[in-house]
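Box 3.1 A note on notation
Throughout this textbook, protein chains are presented in two layers. The first layer is the amino acid sequence; the second is a token string describing backbone geometry. Keep the layers aligned when reading.
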Amino acid sequence: MADVSGHVGYQATLKCVYDNGGLDSEVTWFKGTRQISKSKKYSITQSGKEATLVIKDLQPADASEYTFEISNILGRVSCEGKVMVTGWYSELSRDV
């Protein structure tokens, strides 16, 4: 999965292509070590052999490593990607 960056207030999209061997599989997304699910903040979709996570209304706190994990009777595989958030103002970066 490729790393992505986005501006505050916009969205970031992570995609992972997988092959589940045609078996029933469980798909899970994580932000760091915390499992995430579909919500107003996250859109999670699967189409064919591609899983997509859209992070809406990006904020600095969304910058993190995200992991896609798929598991079935054959085992478990995962892929990781980082989200970087740009375009936010920080008092610490202001010239005095």
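Residues 91-96 have pLDDT under 50 and may be disordered. Residues 4-86 form a domain with the Immunoglobulin-like fold (CATH 2.60.40.10).
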